# Entry
Amino acid sequence: MTREVDDSRRVPAWLDRLAAWSWRLLIVAAALAVLLWLVGRLWVVFLPLVVAAFLCRILASPNLRLRRLGWRPTLAAATVLALFLVAIVGMGALIGVAVAGEVEEIGPTVSQAIDDLEDWLVDDSPFDVQRADIDEFRADAGDRVRNALETSSGSLVSGALLVVEVFVSIILGLIVTFFALKDGDRLIAWTRQAVPDERRELADRLADRAWRTLGGYLRGAALLGLVEGVIIGITLQVVGASLAVPMAVVTFFAAFVPFAGAIVAGALATLVALGTAGTAAAVIVLVVAVLVQQFDNDLLAPIVYGRALNMHPVVVLLAIAGGGALFGLAGSFLAVPVTAVVTNLFVEARRDPAVDG
# Structure
């Protein structure tokens, strides 16, 4: 005798599919959590590898040119790395000297501008702002700064440890970069040998896609930074502000943190204009900075990055916020290129070369 099944006790198909997807997503989320935990614990090891990847992508072409000219691998790697370090240190020294010469002028001028703004808010603005409210806000801000600097909370110790970790990571990254430039072919051959034969074609495609993505990101950020830096520098020069060249350089490097870097650089340029040329000049610089950012983000960036950074601005902002929350300033800087590389690797892994031709 056939036993009838009670349909009222049967799990709906949509709920069954949702449950199947839910446990899969939970496993993926758990794996990502473990991966992020390992990266956090091994940050001193992970950061040098990231630094080396960036430097190798930048220096690979000049290193290859020198080797094609007959230079020995050790000499070629040492030469390009040394020239790169000299250029970076030289730019840093020039910026430091220029800024040091303007600090005494900028400080009092900015302080006076803030006092003028306070007087306008209290006396002439349409807002109901009391002097006591502004004084309370200043006092609260000062207390927060002092609390952040209290040694009893360990903030200074943590900050010193962070500086040491970053310094050590950079040194290790430079060492890894030297050996990667010197023995890159041998490292690639050794890595391919460790991959099973049936997976080597996929591994080659993934490595090539990651290399091209990282290169596209660096070239795109450099081009956008060059455009923004030149425009901001010329604007500061035209309005009569100081530090035009240093701020152009700062704007260039800030472009390597999409969106957030441009905002910070624009704020710094506006502050410099306020401190060295007055309120009218600061307003002009602020307007130019906003227009340049909109032009780059809406028109130039999609063309420059192309497939290398084929991500929606919301994804970029979330990646920066997540990277900063997890790993601080370094996480904000690395969030976008890492996300771009991972996204492109996922797309490449799903691509069928036979279908795409």
In short: The chain has two domains: 43-127+154-194, 206-352. Confidence is low (pLDDT under 50) at residues 148-157. The CA atoms of residues 30 and 255 lie 33 Å apart. Residues 206-352 form one domain.
